[in-house]
Amino acid sequence: MEQGTYAIIDTAGNQVKVEAGSEFKVPRLSAEAGEKVVFDKVLFVSNNGTSTVGTPTVSGASVEATIVAHAKEKRLRIFKRKRRKGFKKTVGHRTEFTRIKIDAIKA
Hints:
By secondary structure, the chain is mainly beta. The chain has one domain. It is 0% helix and 64% strand. The protein contains no helices and ten strands. The chain has strands spanning 5-11, 14-19, 23-27, 36-39, 42-47, 50-53, 62-72, 76-82, 87-93, 96-106. It has a four-stranded antiparallel beta sheet with strand order 2-1-5-6, with no helix packed on it. A four-stranded antiparallel beta sheet has the order 3-10-7-4, with no helix packed on it. Strands 8-9 form a two-stranded antiparallel ribbon.
């Protein structure tokens, strides 16, 4: 059984398992690097083996984090073609993300 404190948060429709003191990638946040952010949508909290499951969120729980940096993922290439027609099309895309460092998990 996994010991320690961790939480599962919902940010921009993605669920991320976070632990205090660790860094994680989340979809881009609007705050600047170095700012503190608080995630209130905590879906699950485990504190040294004691688990709390939210319905849908855990009331009174929050996760405090500091924004480390903003960046982009590796380039994704989309290539379309139609046989025998000479049609070729290439599109590129880079998803933006934010790297955060978890300061505290309050349950």
